[in-house]
């Protein structure tokens, strides 16, 4: 659906060459919600702008719906761009035009018949829950309402891909939540592939199926949201996960740990959260289990998190308990509590 192959982008600036994208290889499947997360300057905007050719790659390929944008004519690119909608952080609405005219704009530019425009705009305003606002102007709307209008406009030409550039970054948490739910509804009801960029891991946690972490123009890790949240492979990936999962152990907990304690982090993923395995361990082995700290949340409807526990007992019993965890596919790791 969207594929980046060896994608490179450099900018020539006042202070020399900026290498904004370095050998990016990613595939976004049809119908998924794919997140790209990274700090400011990582290259996220440049990457997303290559999909609708607002930026032209310096090297490599961008393949959209089977067509390599770097190898087709300007006219063909224009046709493909019609199948791509874009939602912006600051909405990019025309303040001098009504809500109706803003949503109608892409259809007017296509010279669509008036009756068709009326039908589509009415349908879209209804879909985003703002049917009663068509005669209002953007300045009369809240941020969340403006973004709903921005989304309705992006959907006007029935795109198969929706690009979201920090679509919720200017919104408060509650409004963010409602916009994310709307994006999810769009994905589910219209089967539209969504590629979103964000610096907020909570957005990724909420709606993405897969995620790529970008740093300094590179994709440094990529995987399902579960993979990245449960086993981030890079320091930056871990830091992003920590912004919503708080996997670091608080100092008051490390203060409670004795030097000879056996401390473990047990990850809950999926079905393991529901199992009463800690009480089973106490029953099966001569091990005393103490839960020091827990952080359990929900990841896309599934319990997810980790527990910091100490096991006290003879070495052999502890080994047995750990093997039992492993046999039951429960992910754990030994924690050096003093290192945090
Ligand atoms: N038109 C341009 N000319 C020169 N340099 C650019 C241009 N656009 C982006 N860059 C540089 O490319 C790098 C990546 O920028 P980009 O905007 O893609 O990052 P980002 O991850 O989206 O960050 P942000 O969230 O702050 O927008 C940065 O160093 C930026 O300064």
TrEMBL record:
Cited InterPro entries: AAA+_ATPase, ABC_transporter-like_ATP-bd, ABC_transporter-like_CS, ACT-like_dom_sf, MetN_ABC, MetN_ABC_transporter-like, NIL_domain, P-loop_NTPase
- Please state every residue range assigned to the domain named ABC transporter: 2-241
GO terms under biological process: amino acid transport
Molecular function terms in GO for this entry? Answer: ATP binding; ATP hydrolysis activity
Q: From what superkingdom does this record's organism come? A: Bacteria
What keywords does the record list, in alphabetical order? Amino-acid transport, ATP-binding, Cell membrane, Membrane, Nucleotide-binding, Translocase, Transport
What GO CC terms are in its UniProt record? Answer: plasma membrane
**Family note:** Belongs to the ABC transporter superfamily.
Full protein name: Phosphate ABC transporter ATP-binding protein
Name its species. Salinicoccus sediminis
């Amino acid at each position: 659906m969207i594929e980046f192959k060896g994608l490179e982008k450099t900018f020539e600036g006042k202070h020399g060459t900026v290498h904004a994208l370095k050998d990016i290889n990613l595939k976004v499947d049809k119908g998924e919600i794919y997140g790209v997360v990274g700090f400011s300057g990582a290259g996220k905007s440049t990457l997303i702008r290559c999909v609708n050719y607002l930026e032209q790659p310096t090297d490599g390929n961008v393949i959209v719906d089977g067509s390599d944008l770097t190898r087709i004519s300007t006219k063909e690119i224009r046709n493909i761009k019609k199948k791509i909608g874009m939602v912006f952080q600051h909405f990019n609405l025309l303040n001098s035009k009504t809500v109706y005219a803003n949503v109608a704009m892409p259809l007017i530019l296509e010279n669509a018949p008036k009756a068709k425009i009326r039908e589509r705009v009415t349908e879209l305003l209804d879909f985003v829950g703002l049917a009663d606002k068509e005669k209002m102007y953007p300045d009369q709307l809240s941020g969340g309402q403006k973004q709903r209008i921005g989304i309705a406009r992006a959907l006007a030409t029935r795109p198969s891909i929706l690009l979201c550039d920090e679509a919720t970054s200017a919104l408060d948490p509650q409004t963010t939540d409602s916009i994310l739910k709307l994006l999810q509804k769009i994905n589910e009801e219209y089967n539209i592939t969504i590629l979103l960029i964000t610096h907020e891991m909570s957005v990724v946690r909420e709606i993405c199926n897969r995620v790529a972490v970008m740093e300094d123009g590179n994709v440094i890790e990529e995987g399902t949201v579960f993979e990245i949240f449960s086993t981030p492979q890079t320091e930056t990936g871990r830091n992003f996960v920590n912004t919503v999962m708080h996997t670091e152990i608080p100092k008051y907990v490390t203060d409670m740990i004795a030097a000879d304690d056996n401390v473990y982090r047990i990850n809950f993923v999926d079905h393991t959260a529901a199992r009463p395995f800690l009480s089973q361990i106490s029953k099966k082995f001569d091990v005393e289990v103490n839960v020091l700290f827990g952080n359990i949340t929900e990841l896309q409807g599934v319990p997810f998190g980790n527990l910091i526990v100490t096991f006290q007992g003879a070495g052999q019993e502890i080994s047995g308990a750990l093997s039992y965890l492993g046999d039951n596919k429960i992910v754990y790791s030994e924690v050096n509590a003093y290192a945090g």
